[in-house]
Amino acid sequence: xxxxxxxxxxxxxxxxxxxxxxxxxxxxxxxxxxxxxxxxxxxxxxxxxxxxxxxxxxxxxxxxxxxxxxxxxxxxxxxxxxxxxxxxxxxxxxxxxxxxxxxxxxxxxxxxxxxxxxxxxxxxxxxxxxxxxxxxxxxxxxxxxxxxxxxxxxxxxxxxxxxxxxxxxxxxxxxxxxxxxxxxxxxxxxxxxxxxxxxxxxxxxxxxxxxxxxxxxxxxxxxxxxxxxxxxxxxxxxxxxxxxxxxxxxxxxxxxxxxxxxxxxxxxxxxxxxxxxxxxxxxxxxxxxxxxxxxxxxxxxxxxxxxxxxxxxxxxxxxxxxxxxxxxxxxxxxxxxxxxxxxxxxxxxxxxxxxxxxxxxxxxxxxxxxxxxxxxxxxxxxxxxxxxxxxxxxxxxxxxxxxxxxxxxxxxxxxxxxxxxxxxxxxxxxxxxxxxxxxxxxxxxxxxxxxxxxxxxxxxxxxxxxxxxxxxxxxxxxxxxxxxxxxxxxxxxxxxxxxxxxxxxxxxxxxxxxxxxxxxxxxxxxxxxxxxxxxxxxxxxxxxxxxxxxxxxxxxxxxxxxxxxxxxxxxxxxxxxxxxxxxxxxxxxxxxxxxxxxxxxxxxxxxxxxxxxxxxxxxxxxxxxxxxxxxxxxxxxxxxxxxxxxxxxxxxxxxxxxxxxxxxxxxxxxxxxxxxxxxxxxxxxxxxxx
DNA sequence: GATCCTCGAGTTCT
DNA sequence: CTCGAGGATC
Length: 690
Hints:
Elements: H1 8-35, H2 43-59, E1 83-85, E2 95-96, H3 99-113, E3 120-127, E4 130-137, E5 140-146, E6 152-154, H4 157-161, E7 176-184, H5 187-199, H6 208-216, H7 221-226, E8 230-236, H8 249-258, E9 268-271, H9 272-286, E10 294-301, H10 304-310, E11 312-313, E12 316-317, E13 320-324, E14 329-341, E15 347-358, E16 361-367, H11 371-377, E17 380-381, E18 384-388, E19 396-400, E20 410-411, E21 425-426, E22 435-436, H12 443-454, H13 466-473, H14 488-491, H15 496-500, H16 507-519, H17 525-532, H18 539-549, H19 552-557, H20 560-564, H21 571-582, H22 584-595, E23 620-624, H23 632-641, E24 645-647, E25 656-659, H24 665-673, E26 676-678, H25 680-689
Parallel strand pairs: 2-13, 23-24, 23-25, 25-26
Antiparallel strand pairs: 1-6, 3-9, 3-10, 4-5, 4-7, 7-8, 10-13, 11-12, 14-15, 14-18, 15-16, 17-20, 18-19, 21-22
The chain binds a DNA duplex through strand 16, helix 18 and helix 21.
């Protein structure tokens, strides 16, 4: 094929074909997004395609036909709503994704204003909803329209009238006032709506913005009314013919608030670029706890006179900037699916991804949980997948992009033999997890068992991490070298000389490790039981067992009926425990541990849970997020010392949720259930009262 | 038998 | 943090 430079006609034809294909794709995505409320690709991908098409059209202006998606921008027009031409166009803001862009924005503004001094900015969250314009004539709400393409939007007056947040009458002498703002659905209302959709067996909405869009574009205003939409005002359309009642944006917002328009309490005024970045960081930290979704923050030069001096570049104001958070979804390629072996032999498929930047970090791996999950999502090697890193920190493969599947993409099948030791793989009837049957013969399981044994919540051996365990279990560098450790008991026979022989282990570190191992010889019985790694016995059950049996001997001697006496132990757990202690191998390891000097501290009689309920005693707490001055573990210890209980999940029985920074779904759940939410200071107060 | 509440297990990246 | 599943409760 001829190169573009060589043959202009051929180049135009090729560009035309590419543009047509981009348009088809964009139209399909737009339809899925706006009309079906079921986005097929992340926003970032849509933007990328859009930009590609814009690029082509600017290079070959002949291709820029009026029906191109680039000539429309924004919502698909719906024949159901009348068009409204905005008196003052609703423009969009320039976006910034990095600090450098913010610095450049501030610098350009100062240069244009010829000002050395730091600029005062009005700042506010960038709501993730739909922009609307509300027109008031003689103080009466007359017309409400969506943004549409910025020039013309849809008349949704009847639906907007149903919003409690929008005043139908305002106390002003202005004969004409146009208020701009965002219609959105607050998270609580979104959760409630989806619950109702679920209960009725109808499709749930993907996110609050789509729910808001879908709700606002209902033909029946009664449906909109039931959806509990919210509105925040963020500006006034100022034309030359309309004098504004304030000379600063922040004062304008105060004025709107006085007119009973909802204005976010999270807005502020700051000074200079440092102030902007501080605000961005502060809102970012609080993002998860805000009652509504945001996708960044907006900066506006506060002085309206200065705004007018700065003016516009093409179609965006030079006095305002949207500083956006990194996308929480991104597309990438699935390079392969590996299978990992866990402590219990569980085989977990893990997606190996082409590295992709999402939610502020580069993601290369993501769990696929189990075989069924892979089937459900129809994930195949070679697929283009959408990776998400939402409220959760842990990335996941949200879905695949079916239209980008390469021919011959392979389906995943769980191996029939363990990828590590070759033992048979079994998947018990009715269970979701496949397991390696190799037990401790499998080096992966031995490795994980040792890591678990040494972990902080078990024997707490500091410094015994993955790298070291690998070397101790299977000396990779020198296959002939002796395996220093086969069971946890072997750890207690290591000396400084042996450890010092390992890679990256100078004498000092070797000494530290041996000392750490030595220091772990006096665990509580609960920790020791937990460290053994008995199936279905976690931290809590281990503690219950220790409390009930008091000694390791008594626990080991217990038969199933005796075990069933322990609270929260049922037939399955009892069988796991009995089976574990019945195995000669496990008995040998325990004997060896005791012989090596591991001696659980005697269980001290716990102050029998005082029958009386205190403010903390007898109450159930759930911890979430990062507390300002103490770790969650410390908080938990404090609560337990005061006779309270700490649980992992929020339910009706929860008395308090203690929330810190970046609290996630638990906080959300607490709000839904009406559970009291306190912060660290509140917790301290309760503890002081106890 | 159904429902709710917990616990256990597995996981990512800096 | 989320899922699956065990245990308790009605």
